[in-house]
């Protein structure tokens, strides 16, 4: 059943090539903004790294850049573009999902209007609400996490103790975020197929093992493609690396939509009546 | 199969679009810079009148048994105190005689009850300091406080009902560190009043200069201490009156000069170190009583431990009085007495030569035990504490702290500035003096440019200690920036003239309470020039010097018959105050040639234009780091030859990481 679901997901994914292309262009554009933002920072930092011939200048650079990083004004100035980008994406993302999910579910229906836009109009508001809940669920522990780190940092001195104190916490947070992610996906499916907002908790617990297994497979696929493309940019820097970097948007979008499709098939087969 | 073919087809289309995007977005490059705006607020310069002393004829305090007065003795304390080492308590009684130095009758007296800073978590001290001072934390539930049990005048009038607490700085109702006493009748100008009181002090676990660690006790700020009565004209005051402040997280002390006669009763096993001279000691009923006397000092501190190893040496300098140096060592440092003595003598010798005599006959050095750093690194008149003994072989911080605290005997002990309101006059001057001795005696020269880097939040030097935004801002300005400003002044006027300035300032103001303006007046008198602008920027203001390479443009001038030339345009900005001498800028070209330029540095910016056969590879402002107050070296350098491959690699990697996180959550 597992492979059958994947096969079905694969088939419906390939029927959505137009959307995959559209979504990867969308991510590519954000990627370019992100790249430009990082480029401006890396550039402004790297051109200030002094040569070793000037006495103590490199140590001064290390000391002062350390202070700059802990300077709130400096960080806010430099983070503002990223924060604006993220906020915009956080608003657009549920609308795109609304269209995508609607399209997948109603793909066999004849309609004169685009299913995608119908989806945005019909369930965009609900998806925005779900996305807001998602944000709150992620932000609350993150807020606690950051204040915990701030307090802890004052007492921890060695890198080792910082590592051993924080890595488990980060892992716990990642697992929590992953769980929330799954809940949100099925909330969205439930909304699309049943027009109900509450999360299908019972369904999630019942099929917990499948959801984990499937998620791990997708993670593996994404990870592999990430490593592949990252190593390209490490070993062949230059134009080629940039091109390869952009190409990966296509693959990662493909995998993401494949994941959504497989989840859809799994949901429709096993959803509570 | 058909899927795979379609898949590849869809792949080619975006690949084409990518190339297009690349040419649109990535072919340009421009330079951007790192810079932080410095704040542009100034402190108004104040008009000041300085007063060298009072003209009121004062009633003589009955201090005949003390030496000839060096200071205007306004207070005379007679204190009896007993240490209860089981309960970590001090039980005391004191008789204070206070002379009204002003021209107006005084209706009330004010006392600092410093131990009340540790009374609860809500006192101003604990709220401001967050329960930690100099990397030392207040131990949980280890509170301290001072109780006044009885208060009466010499003619027997009970005054306990006439006391009240005031909070002039922050109105914090939980702060009980400043107590007023309404007097039954005013103290007339030049007349005196004697108040008797009994008190007890609960010591906290050692924190913020006082307390206990097992059987080590540090009694600093341990008795009810009368506040400073300032005269008209003194430190710019328009009218005479009390200088009243609570005990704050970022603040030390301020008191009038006077005499102290103190009897300290401890269980027999204890050895006591105290300010002033040991006048006697007797033992009865398993208790020892130490009798200390100190004159022309403005505070009295003592310390007790059964483990002190006491060593004594006499410091002798031609044309100066002998000083008995008493060392109260923690046993862990019993092998290190030579280092302590050497540092103390080096400090006394140099300070005597540079500034003037150390007029007291004793200097006591207390080395607290491990865990007692809350009591460490502190100055009291004729008594200083070293860092707690933790290592058997400590680094040069051992010498540094001794020299620093002995420096305070001059800049705090004798030139007794107001540490509440102008802490830099003590800490900045002492840090400056400490560096000079460290360099002369130990060859350790501070790299001032590293210290300047540390100043991330420059603030005015003349301001209330608690008005600094946070603890580190206080420390980096009062200690480091204050010291660097003095070093900068030295660079401007030369070492000899600086020595002359400091000697004159010390001689003119010892046993008095000068302000920043008084120091400025001495500086102006000795150098015969106005320092108003300089003080306005760096002392009353929060300025640092910051020259920055703002931008760099290189254009190729191609000539068909000749090798190409490159046109360079480099813009240098002045973001901070003006440095007193021209700034040097070094340009290095890829053919190995250098050009060195100088710029007055007075304008807001300057363009340097070159035509050169090769391209610039880097440029650096002040490559020898001679500008002492430059605190942003990071923008003094620009490199044009950053490898673009490395840049792309880093850009892509970072983009990848951040994107992976974002894309795993949203579209």
Automatic annotation (TrEMBL), chain A:
Keyword DNA-binding: no
Keyword annotations from UniProtKB, A to Z: Membrane, Transmembrane, Transmembrane helix
Listed transmembrane segments: 16-38, 82-104, 125-146, 166-189, 201-221, 227-247
Annotated protein name in UniProt: DUF975 family protein
Organism: Chengkuizengella axinellae
Automatic annotation (TrEMBL), chain B:
The UniProt record lists the keyword Transmembrane: yes
InterPro entries named in the record: M1_LTA4H, Peptidase_M1_dom, Peptidase_M4/M1_CTD_sf
An example molecular function term from Gene Ontology annotations: aminopeptidase activity
Keyword line: Aminopeptidase, Hydrolase, Membrane, Protease, Transmembrane, Transmembrane helix
Keyword Transmembrane belongs to the record: yes
Sections of the chain in a coiled coil: none
UniProt EC number: 3.4.11.-
Pfam family, one: Peptidase_M1
Spans through the membrane: 7-26
Stored Gene3D superfamilies: Neutral Protease Domain 2 (1.10.390.10)
Domain (Peptidase M1 membrane alanine aminopeptidase) ranges: 346-532
PANTHER family: LEUKOTRIENE A-4 HYDROLASE
Protein name: M1 family metallopeptidase
Organism: Chengkuizengella axinellae
